[in-house]
Design goal:
Blueprint: H1 6-14, H2 20-23, H3 31-38, H4 52-72, H5 76-90, H6 98-110, H7 124-134, H8 144-156, H9 172-175
């Protein structure tokens, strides 16, 4: 990453790492849990941690195991239902066309190794949500909020002269800024 001073980015973010459980505010929509039960995912004992961050970690681990199981045992329908739930209910991307979402999910289901060049940028938010649950140790979510945040850090910390592309987002406040 010759265009970025990674040390400056890491230094800026370092002060937040011990506060993640207090800063994290993506509220898990609790009706998602009833839909998980429909997919034979036992949620008993999960999601009773004292904060949203820890509950989200539990959710990722539980769902990751189930997605891996669905892939291993070739359960395409269950995989699709769970991925759709992640995109629409957990991720809040409800405006996408089902047939476009189906193509993304099928590509991920059919792939052993993800080829990012085959993921259309306009669907990176949906794809990255699935991948971050499928393998949370390897993949992260990339959406408009993430790219805005990274770009803000790069700008304010003078950590580079290039910025990350911003996928089209649904947040009208973010779209109001000409970046």
């Amino acid at each position: 990453m010759e265009n970025f001073d990674v040390d400056k980015i890491v230094t800026y973010l370092d002060k937040f790492k011990s506060e993640l459980s207090n800063l994290y505010s993506w509220d898990i929509n609790h009706h998602v849990f009833s839909k998980l039960d429909e997919l034979s995912i036992d949620c008993n004992g999960y999601f009773n941690k004292p904060n949203l961050y820890e509950n989200t970690i539990d959710l990722k681990m539980l769902v990751s195991k189930k997605l891996q199981e669905f892939k291993t045992f070739n359960k395409r329908n269950e995989f699709h239902k769970l991925c759709s739930l992640l995109i629409r209910d957990w991720g809040g991307i409800r405006s996408s066309k089902e047939e476009n979402t189906q193509i993304i999910i099928d590509n991920i289901f059919d792939s052993n190794e993800i080829n990012y060049s085959k993921i259309p940028f306009k669907r990176i938010a949906s794809s990255s949500k699935i991948l971050s649950f499928l393998n949370p140790e390897k993949y992260v979510i990339y959406d408009s909020r993430i790219s805005y945040s990274l770009n803000w850090i790069i700008l304010t910390q003078q950590a580079g002269n290039k910025f990350f592309p911003i996928p089209e987002g649904r947040n009208s406040r973010m779209r109001a800024f000409d970046v």
